[in-house]
Amino acid sequence: GAMMDNRFATALVIACVLSLISTIYMAASIGTDFWYEYHTLSPAENVSEAGRSIWEEFFSKDADEKTYTDALFRCNGTVGLWRRCITVPKNSHWYSPPENDMTTNCISFSLSDQFMEKYIEPGNHNSGTDLNRTYLWRLQFLLPFVSIGLMCFGALIGLCACACRSLYPAIATGVLHFLAGLCTLGLVGCYVAGIELLHKKLPLPDDVRGEFGWSFCLACVSAPLQFMAAALFIWAARTNRKEFTLLKAYRVA
């Protein structure tokens, strides 16, 4: 009886909380620009005319991968799934004091950018298509949405289950969360592989350090939360079904 019901209720509540947190983390990581960060160790004051042309190209509509990656290296760039950002001096006058007068400017990847081919030599479209990088990039753009979609669909099924006072749909919710976790893991894997392959083609300059940022970490944390929620949903549904069958058998006897 009541004791058992409390156990399921607790498991389901914890599963729902984990699911909610992982959804929030996924949404935050999709929406922020700190998947990968470059730290340029050389000071910003040696920003010359060359520097200015680098920024102008970075913001131009037809910046190719090599152009914008060079700008990211040079200007403390950060990259998200949707946007790329660089930090540039506010004033373009060379005589203004360079300290603390920096501003971060971002430009979005358009949909066509997201699906555009990556080339074997970044920026050189005569070098042929790099299929690995092209598909890794497309996957890292699509998978987070699939993951969030699966969790929202799971939540809908869960709500119906509550309305019908039945635990059977909790298994479906669990399975959907498990699939969402796989998508999130896939996303993290694709992102890491894509960055590694890019840096093989365009090695980091000596005075630039690169590291995965907190947006990337949110996605990494989201995956285990999805798996834990999945396990709890499935456990609660299965054990409850067993008890229910035992109770029925006992009644009949």
TrEMBL record:
Highest taxon in the source lineage: Eukaryota
GO cellular component labels: membrane
Gene3D superfamilies: 1.20.140.150
Record keywords, A-Z: Membrane, Transmembrane, Transmembrane helix
Cited InterPro entries: CLDN1, PMP22/EMP/MP20/Claudin
UniProt membrane topology term: Multi-pass membrane protein
Residue spans crossing the bilayer: 141-163, 175-194, 214-237
Pfam families reported for this sequence: Claudin_2
Record localization: Membrane
Protein name: Claudin domain-containing protein 1
Organism: Manacus vitellinus
Organism classification: Eukaryota, Metazoa, Chordata, Craniata, Vertebrata
